[in-house]
Design goal:
Pathway: Cofactor biosynthesis; riboflavin biosynthesis; 5-amino-6-(D-ribitylamino)uracil from GTP: step 2/4; Cofactor biosynthesis; riboflavin biosynthesis; 5-amino-6-(D-ribitylamino)uracil from GTP: step 3/4
EC number: 3.5.4.26, 1.1.1.193
Bound molecules: ligand AOF, zinc ion
Largest sheet: 9 strands, mixed
Protein name: Riboflavin biosynthesis protein RibD
Cofactor: Zn(2+)
Catalytic activity: 5-amino-6-(5-phospho-D-ribitylamino)uracil + NADP(+) = 5-amino-6-(5-phospho-D-ribosylamino)uracil + NADPH + H(+); 2,5-diamino-6-hydroxy-4-(5-phosphoribosylamino)-pyrimidine + H2O + H(+) = 5-amino-6-(5-phospho-D-ribosylamino)uracil + NH4(+)
Strand content: 15-25%
CATH topology of the largest domain: Dihydrofolate Reductase, subunit A
Shape: globular
Strand order of the largest sheet: 11-10-9-8-12-6-13-16-15
CATH class of the largest domain: Alpha Beta
CATH architecture of the largest domain: 3-Layer(aba) Sandwich
Length: 365
């Protein structure tokens, strides 16, 4: 039943921000085996929460039933809806099974406590490892004030991400491409540096059939506001959010034109190297509600995030193609093998995407 709740919760990853995408199921057993009588997932935009939806579907059948949730029910009152723990108590839930405690200081155990005090049998920690991964963005945001950062790299057998002056080089195959668009759908945002924006003129949307509405916020790190008004990103800014992060050194007239074209401009400081301060950029993104961000290019951004220890998850797609000596290395200043061997990261296992291999690493706290 927790597996069902986790699967439900995953449905709105990428849509529920600034809130976590929580799954909830109400289950009754009247002697003939367990029956799911209510289901809920946090709605797009974060409200309503999962529990009131599952409880409403269950109606009177919630009395005496078990509520399975992928995150501790909230205990804080909000203008957008009452505390879920109170809703569960009022509905007459007899038992609560949750995966993890909510680290949000507004909750932090109070949701569980409220139910224990009401005489509800509370069990937590069920399939916690999976819930910790699904809610990684929420957890990172409430603990560290920044989003969970997924570094996605498609690299050739000789460790290259492209060829100098050649624009986009097809390194991975169609299966990897479909997988990466699914990753876009399940993430709040995708972030690239201006070098990649100028070289590739990408759209960074989700182009899987039926999932266009799941395109992530597109973020371009563009210190001097060089993103062309005629680029694909600016051209689609009214349909899919485009956030341009610049510094005070950018020409205000260029920033005004980007705003007029539908982009949202964010100003951030620069570090000692003259580039945008990545830690500050991430804090600004989390302040606007983002919980998960894919960093998808280019090598400068990847190397900057790795050096600043801001990478939480590595998704390395390795193809067996060779780019050759005029290739652009994936991680300048640091080898890929070095990253894969870094004890900061644990392997979540490799998988195959057609002919390509996905190496999945997760930061160990
Ligand atoms: C739940 N069920 O489905 C979710 C929860 O801004 P608010 O009032 O909507 O509260 C947001 C916080 O509620 C969020 O930061 C997280 O701690 C929790 N999310 N809680 O009981 C849900 N999405
Ligand atoms: Zn709630």
């Amino acid at each position: 039943m927790m597996g069902a709740a986790l699967a439900l919760g995953r449905r709105n990853l990428g849509l529920a921000w600034p809130n976590p995408s929580v799954g909830a199921v109400v289950v009754r057993d009247d002697g003939a085996g367990p029956v799911v009588v209510g289901r809920g997932v946090t709605a797009a935009g974060g409200r309503p929460h999962a529990e009131p939806q599952a409880l409403a579907e269950a109606g009177a059948a919630a009395r005496g039933a078990t509520l399975y949730v992928t995150l501790e029910p909230c205990s804080h009152a909000s203008p957008r809806g009452g505390p879920c723990a109170v809703a569960a108590r009022e509905a007459g839930i007899a038992r609560l099974v949750s995966a993890i405690e909510d680290p949000n200081p507004k909750v932090a155990g109070d949701g569980h406590r409220l139910l224990v005090e009401a005489g509800v049998a509370v069990e937590t920690g069920v399939r916690a490892a999976e819930a910790l991964r699904d809610h990684a963005g929420h957890i990172r945001r409430v603990r560290d004030g920044r989003p969970h950062v997924r570094l996605k790299l498609a690299v050739s057998a000789d460790g290259m991400v492209g060829r100098a002056g050649a624009g986009q080089v097809a390194i991975s195959g169609p299966a990897a491409r479909r997988w990466s668009h699914g990753l876009r759908a399940a993430s709040d945002a995708i972030m690239i540096g201006i070098g990649t924006a100028l070289a590739d003129d990408p759209r960074l949307d989700c182009r899987l059939p039926g999932l266009a509405g799941r395109s992530p916020v597109r973020v371009v790190l563009d210190r001097l506001a060089r993103l062309p008004l005629g680029s694909n990103l600016v051209g689609t800014a009214r349909e899919i959010p485009l956030w341009v992060v610049a510094s005070v050194a950018a020409d205000p007239a260029r920033l005004a034109r980007l705003t007029e074209a539908g982009a949202h401009v964010i100003l951030a400081g620069t570090g000692a190297d003259g580039r945008l301060d990545l830690a500050e950029v991430l804090v600004a993104l989390a302040a606007r509600g983002l919980t998960t961000v894919i960093a998808e290019g280019g090598p400068t951004l990847a190397a900057g995030l790795v050096a600043a220890r801001l990478v939480d998850e590595v998704l390395l797609v390795r193809s067996d193609l060779n780019v050759g000596p005029d290739g652009i290395p994936a991680l300048p200043g640091r080898g890929l093998d070095d990253l894969v061997a870094d004890p900061t990261f644990a392997s979540l296992g490799d998988s195959l995407l057609g002919p390509d291999r996905l190496v999945h690493l997760w930061r160990q706290e």
